């Protein structure tokens, strides 16, 4: 039964589309390049500190989207609940960070 294809009301058989290894290899290379760019920005001593921090934050955000979208398969259909829970976690974590910063600097 698990190997059989599911049929719809119209009798049309549909297959689950599988991704090939090519896309995974490209995403792995993209992740490695993003990591190397961030490492190179820190390893180079002549880079402005503000530019390095901004570059690291941008690389981190891009890396998060790549990791969640491709390695955690959140780009696929039917993954709305994990996306909602992850966004809820970001909202709670962001609120805690903002409140902690406010609490530390509040006079």
UniProtKB/TrEMBL annotation:
Entry GO terms, CC: cytochrome o ubiquinol oxidase complex; plasma membrane
Membrane topology: Multi-pass membrane protein
UniProt keyword Oxidoreductase, yes or no: no
Keywords associated with the record: Cell membrane, Membrane, Transmembrane, Transmembrane helix
GO molecular function, one term: cytochrome bo3 ubiquinol oxidase activity
Protein location: Cell membrane
Annotated TM spans: 24-43, 49-71, 83-105
One of the GO BP terms on file: aerobic electron transport chain
Highest rank taxon of the organism: Bacteria
Pfam families tied to this protein: COX4_pro (PF03626)
Family classification: Belongs to the cytochrome c oxidase bacterial subunit 4 family.
Protein name as annotated: Cytochrome C oxidase subunit IV
Gene source species: Paenibacillus durus (Paenibacillus azotofixans)
